[in-house]
Amino acid sequence: MDRRQPAALVIGGGIAGIQAALDIADAGFPVYLVEREPSIGGRMAQLDKTFPTLDCSSCILTPKMVDAGQHPNIELMTYAEVESVARDGDGFRVRVRQKPRYVDVDKCRGCGDCAEACRMKGRIVSEFDEGIANRSSIYVPFPQAVPLKYTIDPEACLYLTRGTCGRTFKCKDACPADAIDFEQEAEFVDIEVSTIIVATGFDLIDPRTKPEYAYGVYPEVMTGMEFERLSDASGPTKGEILVDGEKPEDVVFIKCVGSRDPHTGVPYCSRVCCMYTAKHAHLVRDKIPDANITVFYMDVRAFGKGYEEFYDRVKQERVTYRRGEPSEIYRRGDKVVVLAEDTTLGQPVEVEADLVVLATAIVPRNDVKGVSGLLGLEQSPDGFFQEADAKLRPVDSNVEDVFVAGCCQSPKDIPDTVGQAKAAASSALRVLVRARDAASSGCEAKMVKES
Amino acid sequence: MALKTAKMAEQLELFGCIQCGKCTGGCPVARKTTLNIRNLIYHMLVDSEMDTGAHEELWDCTACFTCVERCPKDVQPAELVIALRGDLVEAGRVPETVGTALMSVFRQGNPNSMARQDRELWAEGMEDSLERAKKAAKEGCDTLYFVGCTPSYDQRVQRVARALMRTFENSGLDVGVLGTDESCCGNEVRRMGEIGLFEMLVEEGGETLRSVGARQMVTTSPHCFNTFKNEYGLDEMEILHYTQLIAHLIEEGGLTFDGSVASEDGEEKVVTYHDPCFLGKQNQIFDEPRAILEAIPGVKLVEMDRNRERSLCCEGGGGRMWVEGTNLEERLAFQRVEEAADTGADVLAVACPFCLLTLEDAVKVRGLDEQLQVVDIMELVDLALEDADASPAGDSEEEE
Fold first, then answer.
1. Buried/exposed A258-295: b ≥16 CB within 10 Å, e otherwise
2. Which residue in A97, A144, A319, B290 has the most C-beta neighbors within 10 A?
3. Hey, are the CB atoms on B74 and A260 less than 8 Å from each other?
């Protein structure tokens, strides 16, 4: 990384942050890519297939993650958080807190012997797998993680929480590289950058805010993101769709769970649910050819390139679309019943199911207020970061030289996210080029004077 | 004369409806009658007139407000039912029993066609307590107990009122009652569409209640609680349902159980709890009734599959205690008591006079009375307190 050049900071290592970092780095400028999780990849890494082309999500994402990890102009700062940002002339002074992994990343080879040996193996809920699988206290979130370095979860590790882990440290004993280091402490890294891209992503609404769907009560009721992990060939079930170990015969999808509903604080449309639900229906048909598949919907919004065509295709795959937003789920024997009015029939209907997938609303990341405070970013009434102009300045923020990209600005699909990331990178490059030119003209002036 | 739809559609903000059907989908009576509130809203939007008299099913609505709770667009579908009933009330085209109930409220202050001067009948056997409480209300008391019409007059529900009164006194509460000065709260009156009468009750009743100067008012019924809390504007006092007050007393140590409801050989009573719509769904009081039950020695609480926000309406609200509706055969209460019996419970506990009556009736009709007893939570509280304290009236032996 050429530290004589003006640099950029990208906050958030999902597809938006990765793409923006790559574009800037490819143009020859240094980029610090800060990600709070142990690996870059973000939400896209959790997805099975992508609509409407059905590409395997990790197959198209992993090469970009690897590029970002190996790029000479990108400094990855994973398991790190931006601590403070201060204006300094035309640029910013940024302090980044590197959280302790309790693993020496220079020594760790990513072999995983530590996780195998951990006393807590299989007992800690895997965030990456949305709770449908467990991990150890020492872990990588997923096998394709970048960097492939292990991290000790300070809230789950017996030694770090209780001061003792039996007579001997299982992970330390197992590590062939002597990489475990319980003495590690947080470190602060100060950097100077000319521009910042915020790409901090999104969260999904807790479906318990709609108690009528009994999420958390019935194992048959799950979120779309849980379904992604279930359906992923590299996921915990190796892509087999199983509920309580059984293949479901009757599958119901419910759209707009929490979205378009001012009561939940989500008056907007989450934009991706119509298409990922169509994709889910296709995946069920692909894996369980005899399943009865019903999609309950209020409206179908298939607006992107190839989207309406994909929706048409999925319907032809014997997927029944019924208009009506279900009102309740309850148990009947070993099935659950989805209660709705089929508004086309004008009649209340009960549809029995072994699996109900809730398309939950996209909401601002839970740390949106913190990030907004660090940078002085404005939020729009929906809680997402406010762009400078909804139409003509879609990636500019209210702070000069700070840009926004991806779902932290509003819900959007992968193509729109990548497009916005590239736009943010292009805007950031203008700042960087200007900074470089200013520096070099200053340099030239100095040389002229000296000669 | 048909109703002109335009004004009402605008007043009730029906134009915000996206016809998603979540209202009708969750409507407990839509599955058994022709009531389809989503469809009625649509007709209000696309037709210029509506012949309300042709919609007999309007009287099926129980005002459980499931539709209102779940509507993603704040349309308040049940308020349309109330408004359309209002049109029928104005035109004098209401079922005879509804007319009788409304007239009785107007003349006697209760919908039960009972005389106003008999409103103290509930206190039979505890006349001293009644007199003390009436005096307290006149002289100013801390807690005003609003008994309510059904608990005042209905012999079965009077037991709940007596249990409450005993418990208040035993806990040392400075409690007052209005006696024959108490009048119907009007919660059901409004939901039957008689808005004028309701407004009169709010005006007159509100004045009477305020004049006591109590810090808090507690009701037997979630229906009275609902209208006092949300529709009366009684900002000067705290409005409580009794489950809130009793749960609070237990938590603060003001109520301790020395007795138990377990059988003589120590076997616990298995109790399941039915959430009343006006307490649960409409006012989010789910935890207090359960906290009381769990504090009662000898109670083992089990849940029905459909509980809390998914509780099934007993069909006793929205004036339905005074009008049968269009499908008598498939009562929701029948379904509900079978759900309760499926849990293996010995006792189905409720916290609402209407639920008590509809579910007890259903247990009898369904022949479940040998295995499932329907009681109000207060009766269990009373039973668990009774052992320790020689209560003024041996209520449990007095009837049946």
1. bbbbeebebebbbbbbbbbbbbbbbbbbeebeebbbbb
2. A319
3. no
Side by side, which strands form the sheet with B299-302?
Answer: B299-302, B269-273, B347-350, B373-376
For B38, the closest of A212, A256, A341 (CB atoms) is: A341
Nearest to A261 among B31, B72, B310 (CB): B72
The Cα–Cα gap between B67 and B75 comes to 9
Asked if the Cβ–Cβ distance from A212 to B18 is below 8 Å, we say no
Inter-chain touch B24–A330, beta carbons under 8 Å: no
Beta-carbon separation of B26 and A339 below 8 A: yes
Q: Which domains does chain B have, with CATH numbers?
A: 3-93 (no CATH), 115-252 (3.40.50), 269-398 (3.40.50)
Cα–Cα dist A238/B217, whole Å: 60
- What band does A443 get if pLDDT is binned at 50, 70 and 90? low
- Confirm whether A8-99+186-201+365-447 and A205-361 share one CATH topology: yes
Domain-wise residue ranges, chain A: 8-99+186-201+365-447, 113-174, 205-361
The overall average pLDDT reported for chain B is 95
Q: Look at residue A129 and tell me whether its pLDDT is greater than 90.
A: yes
B204: Cβ–Cβ under 8 A, 6 or more apart, which residues? B183
C-alpha distance from B395 to closest chain A C-alpha (Å): 39
- Give the rounded distance of the alpha carbon of B395 from its chain centre: 23
| Residue from A220, A298, A327 whose CB has the most chain B CBs within 10 Å, to mutate | A327
Judge: A348–B25 Cβ closer than 8 Å, yes or no: yes
Asked if A339 is an interface residue toward chain B (Cβ–Cβ < 8 A), one would say: yes
For A152, A248, B157, the CA distances from A98, given in Å and listed in that order, are: 14, 44, 66
Of A341, A342, A347, A360, which to mutate for an interface test with B (greatest number of B Cβ within 10 Å)?
A341
ipTM: 0.92
The verdict on a CB contact (< 8 Å) between A348 and B19 is no
CATH number for A205-361 (one of 1.20.1530.20, 3.50.50.60, 1.10.3720.10, 3.40.50.1100): it is 3.50.50.60
Q: Which residues contact B150 (CB under 8 A, 6 or more apart)?
A: B112, B157, B221, B321, B353, B354, B357
pTM of model > 0.90: yes
pLDDT digits (tens, 9 = 90+) for A357-412: 999 999 999 999 999 999 999 999 999 999 999 999 999 999 999 999 999 999 99
Which 8-state DSSP code applies to residue B112? T
The answer to whether the beta carbons of residues B198 and B89 sit under 8 Å apart is no
pLDDT tens figures, B227-238: 999 999 999 999
Q: What CATH number has the domain spanning A8-99+186-201+365-447?
A: 3.50.50.60
**Residue A24 DSSP SS3:** helix
* Statement: residue B42 has pLDDT above 50: yes
Cβ neighbours of A340 in B, within 8 Å: 21-22, 25
Kindly list the residues of chain B whose beta carbon comes within 8 Å of any beta carbon in chain A. Answer: 18-27, 30-31, 36, 38-39, 66, 70, 72-74, 305-306, 308-310
Residues of A in contact with B21 (CB under 8 A): 323-325, 327, 340-343
CA A263 to chain B, closest CA, distance in angstroms equals 7
Residue B348 exposure: Cα atoms within 13 Å on the Cβ side? 34
Spatial separation of the C-alpha atoms in residues A73 and A80, rounded to whole Å: 18
Asked whether A120 and A137 are in contact (CB, 8 A), the reply is yes
Is residue B265 exposed (0-12), middle (13-18) or buried (19+ Cβ within 10 Å)?
exposed
Write out the two tokens for B9.
């559609």
The answer to whether B74 contacts A262, with C-beta atoms less than 8 Å apart, is: yes
- Say which residues have a Cβ less than 8 Å from residue B8's Cβ, sequence separation at least 6: B14, B44, B80, B83
Distance from the B324 Cα atom to the nearest Cα atom in chain A, whole angstroms? 22
